[in-house]
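Lecture notes, part 5. Sequence design as translation. It can be helpful to think of inverse folding as translation between two languages: the language of shapes and the language of residues. The source text, in structure tokens, appears below.
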């Protein structure tokens, strides 16, 4: 008889929070387009630290310095595991806010 593992207790996931519409607009105006491909259509504001503890729980989560503008395609590629794009976002912000 085959034994199956015990069910794993379900872990409550914290939903990533979005920027306020005001902050998202400021980010998009600052960047002027996607920081990866320079597209000016289907723009979104991406949190550069969305997985970190500080991103979720403190007041910096809605800060212009925590976000970059990405087009829909590049934002999706980043969330699908393109770590190169994530690294570019961090470099972009570190150069911008030296």
């Amino acid at each position: 008889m085959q034994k199956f593992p015990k069910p794993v207790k379900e872990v409550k996931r914290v939903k990533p929070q979005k920027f306020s519409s005001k902050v998202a607009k400021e980010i998009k105006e600052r960047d002027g387009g996607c920081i990866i491909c320079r597209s000016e259509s289907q723009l979104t504001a991406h949190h550069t630290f969305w997985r970190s503890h500080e991103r979720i729980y403190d007041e910096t989560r809605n800060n212009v310095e925590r976000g970059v503008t990405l087009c829909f395609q590049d934002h999706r590629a980043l969330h699908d595991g393109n770590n190169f794009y994530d690294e570019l976002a961090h470099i972009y912000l570190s150069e911008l806010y030296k």
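The translated text above is only one of many valid answers, since several sequences can fold into similar shapes. The mean pLDDT is 80.
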